Amino acid sequence: MFFKNHKSILFYYKYIGAWDYDIGIIVKNSNELRIFINELRKNFSEGIKINDVYLILEEVTGYKLPEGAFKI
Question: How far apart are CA 41 and CA 62, in angstroms?
């Protein structure tokens, strides 16, 4: 399956309803994003419609444990 094997895909969710899939990818720049979108369209040319693209430039918070959390 394209979603399981593609190196840029971090996660994907399959939904029932208005949107069938939600895909999270990581790319270095807009050129890599364009390449990914073209690959997606090539593999799913009949039924693909991209509704939204959200760009996250930096993760300022995350789920990080405090330093030394596992030290005994």
Answer: 32
Nearest CA among 46, 45, 54, 59 for reference residue 22: 54
CB 26 within 8 A of CB 10: yes
Query: Taking the CA atoms of the chain, what radius of gyration do you get in angstroms?
Result: 16
Residue 72 has pLDDT above 60, yes or no: no
> Does residue 6 contact residue 14 with C-beta atoms inside 8 Å?
no
Q: Note the pTM of the prediction, 2 decimals.
A: 0.66
Nearest to 56 by CA among 26, 31, 36: 26
Picking from 39, 47, 45, 40, the residue whose alpha carbon sits closest to that of residue 20 is 47
pLDDT digits (tens, 9 = 90+) for 23-64: 889 888 889 999 999 998 898 887 787 878 888 777 777 677
